[in-house]
Structures are given as structure tokens and as C-alpha cells.
Amino acid sequence: MAKENKSVKNFPNSRSIPKLRFPEFNDEWENKKLGDLMTFKVTNSYSRDNLNYESGTVKNIHYGDIHTKFQTLFDLEKENVPYVNEDISLNRISEDFYCQEGDVIFADASEDLNDVGKSIEITNLNGEKLLSGLHTLLARPQKNNFSKGFLGYLLKSDFVRNQIKKESQGSKVLSINVGRISNIHLSFPSISEQQKISEFLSLLDKRILCSMKIIEQLKTLMKASREKIFSKKLRFKNENNDFYSEWKSTKLKNISQIFDGTHQTPKYVKKGVPFYSVENLTANNFSVTKYISEEVFIKENNRVKIEKGDILMTRIGDIGTVKYIDWNVNASFYVSLALIKSNNDNNSKYLAQYISSDKFQNELWNRTIHVAFPKKINLGEIGECLLKIPCIEEQTKIANFLSSIQEKIETEKQILEKLEQQKKFLMANLFV
Predict the structure, then answer these.
(1) What is the CA angle 129-130-131, rounded to 5?
(2) Do both 165 and 277 map to the same domain?
(3) With 50 as the cut, is the pLDDT of residue 95 above it?
(4) Percentage of residues of the chain with pLDDT beyond 90
(5) Using one digit for the tens of pLDDT, what is the confidence trace for 401-432?
(6) What PANTHER family does its record include (predicted)?
(7) Model pLDDT, residue 282
(8) For the domain that residue 157 is a member of, what is the CATH number?
(9) Which residues pair with 129 in a beta bridge?
(10) Does 168 share its domain with 178?
(11) Is 60 helix (H, G, I), strand (E, B) or coil?
(12) DSSP-derived secondary structure letter, 428
């Protein structure tokens, strides 16, 4: 990506010229209302009950899928789209109302302001028939104004998204209609420059998607490896090529100490002692986002503090997410987390991996207080959960094997985060 970024140049901030631009282009961009550039076609109101994923002759876009899974440039060959049930007659639907390549589909409703008016551009129909369905707006651009693929990105630029948010209406559920979305302004360059922008962003999207798939594949590998190892379908051997001694069953409280964090939300400072909560463990990348003062840290940590080799686990809300602390740190934490300090007879990395296994997680779930909101688990119940403990040599081999996969996952997450930051920057600067 670094080489590609050199192909764009900086421009002074202007209403008709973007901040970043490919060097061969100098003309100002046009600015017109969306309603003057696109016509809207009739959509249907088929609910999920009218759709299926097994069979049919016509596929249908449901607005919920635009919110959750479809790519900006929609390729029907690569997306999982439901069929309209075959017992529903489509005779009254005009051929002109079927989707065409280059069409844009907006989701006209959402509970989230950031999602109202979210859109996809249809770039490949794969020779199939497709309809735009419930809570969608189907817009067809006039010919010769847009290159295929450009509108998908243009409609997700900051300039356009901010206009759509302002035009949306409602309180609990936000919506936007044809009249209001037709009033927003679109700024766009020549066809050749459009092609350059869409090709550039499409390459970045493919790399992001590739990174996401790698992460999912590694997570699947980790899950399968844990299941085989902790069910003893996969065993490690010693230097004599013999299996290690039999595993012992024990409760977590018998091999560790378990603590909760402060029950008081502290006053945060810009720089100081790291302070962790559920948000840190459930984020894509574990990082320090909040700090407390040294004075508060000393006062709160007369009892316990986070140190290298400890295990943090969420115990409120998203219960059971684990983070092994493998760096030198003196830190504090909130009551939403449990701090597990292993005794010296066991490998803490092994314990962290076992706690993350399905078997242990299922026991955590069964011991959770389900009537509470958010759901929570008491420290005593965490301590009652059972583990299988091999000898320390086998613990170490298991921990090293699983940790190597975890490290690859974390590395790929960091790459994904950088790619997403890069795309965010480009979306803010490649468009007017």
C-alpha cells in the first residue's frame, strides 16, 4: 500500500477539489443533487418469512443484510443472498424494477444514525435476477455520469454520509425517504478519475477482506486445536517419545488466587498507571485507553495489582474473554474483570488457554447468574470451575503451541487495524 499512496498528491482544501488526488488529474469536480443524477425504482416489502436460502429463481436484498454483511461493491457471485419463496407470484413486478449492474441500494431505516442510508453498489449480478426488498431504496444512475464501482465508495464518503445523517428522521428508529435523499449533493470527477479511485479503494478492500478471512481461519484453527488437546485426542511426548503422565482434575481455586478489581469508577488522567476494564479485553486489539494517577493506584492496590504472568478474564457482560499478561506492567482494573494469579507449580499460559477452551467456557456459562443484567459470574463460582492439569513439561509444550497461533492472530489483527485506519484516511481525503 505504501507504494500506491505515493501516486496521490496533496491539494489545498477546496470545495471542488479533494485533499488527495492522483497526479494526472487537475480538473475541478462537478457538484449536483443526487435526484438529478439518479432515478428511483419500485421495491418490495418481503419479510424474512418470505425468503429462503435453499431454492428459487429470484434473489432479494433485505435491508438488514446491507447493515451487517454485504460488501460496498456488491458481487452477487460472492455474497450469500436469499431467494424469494417460490409460492410468491412475481408476475406484477416490471422488468425495469429488477436490479441492474451499477444500481445503488440504500437501507432506508436503522436504529443507529451511522447506519441509516447505508448503501451498496451492484457490480456483478452473475446472470441472476435480483430484487431490492424491505426497507430499501433502489436508485439507478443516469448513463455516462459514473464509472462502475465509484458510486459505492462516493456514497460512503464523509461529505455524503454527513448529509444523509442530517436528512434522516425519527427518534428510536431513524429513516430516510426518496425525497430527502434526492436533496443531498454529490461531487464527482471525470470517468477516468472515478475509475482510478474505485480501483485503488477496491484493492484495499480486497486486502482488508483477506486479512479478516485469515483471522477467522486462525480462530477456527485455535478452536479445533484446543478441543483436540484438552480432550486428549492430541498429546505431546517427552524426549523419549513417550506420553507424559496422566492429567489431574482440579478446581481453579486450588491452583490460583482470584481477585476482583475496584468497585469505584476512578478519576481518569491523561498519563499515569494503566487501568483495564471489559472494553480492553473485548476490543479487536488489547491496548491501554485509560489511566489513573499514582496516588489512586497506591490507594486502590494495597490488596492486589496486575503483574506479568497474570490472567485477566471478563466476568460481567461478555463473560469469559481472556487476556494473558505477558509483559512487565503494574496496572489496576475494574470490578468487571477477574484477576487470576496462578501458583508457581503451573504454567500461567497453559491456564489461560484452558480457561479459553469450550469446556471451561461452558462451565462458566452454567455458573453465570442469568437473571442479572448485565449477566455476571461471582468470583467463588469461577474458582469452582474444573480444569485438567498435565505435568508442567506438557503444560509448557501445550502453552507454546497454542500461543504461537494466538500470536499470529494478534499480528493479523494489528495489520487489519492499520488497513482500516488507512482506508478511513483515504475515504476522508480522496473525496470532496
Answers:
(1) 135
(2) no
(3) yes
(4) 79
(5) 999 999 999 999 999 999 999 999 999 999 98
(6) TYPE I RESTRICTION ENZYME MJAVIII SPECIFICITY SUBUNIT (PTHR30408:SF12), TYPE-1 RESTRICTION ENZYME ECOKI SPECIFICITY PROTEIN (PTHR30408)
(7) 86
(8) 3.90.220.20
(9) 58
(10) yes
(11) strand
(12) H
Task: Specify whether 34 is located in the same domain as 44.
Answer: yes
pLDDT above 70 for 347: yes
For residue 313, the cross-strand partners are 322, 338
Average pLDDT over residues 160-168: 95
Chain position carrying cell 474483570: 337
Is residue 422 domain-shared with residue 363, that is, in the same domain? no
Residue 382 C-alpha cell reads as 469461577
Give 421-427 contacts, CB < 8 A, sequence gap 24+.
422/1, 422/204, 423/201, 423/204, 423/205, 423/208, 426/20, 426/200, 426/201, 426/204, 427/153, 427/156, 427/157, 427/158, 427/201
Longest pairwise C-alpha distance within the chain: 79
- Do residues 47 and 60 touch, judged by C-beta distance below 8 A? no
**181 Cβ partners below 8 Å, 6+ apart?**
34, 106, 117, 137, 139, 164, 167
CATH number of the domain within which 416 lies? 1.10.287.1120
DSSP secondary structure, 136-171, as one string = EEEEEEPTTS--TTHHHHHTTSHHHHHHHHHH-B-S
Structural domain harbouring 42: 30-188
Give the residue from 385, 327, 379 showing the smallest Cα distance to 355: 385
pLDDT at 5: 46
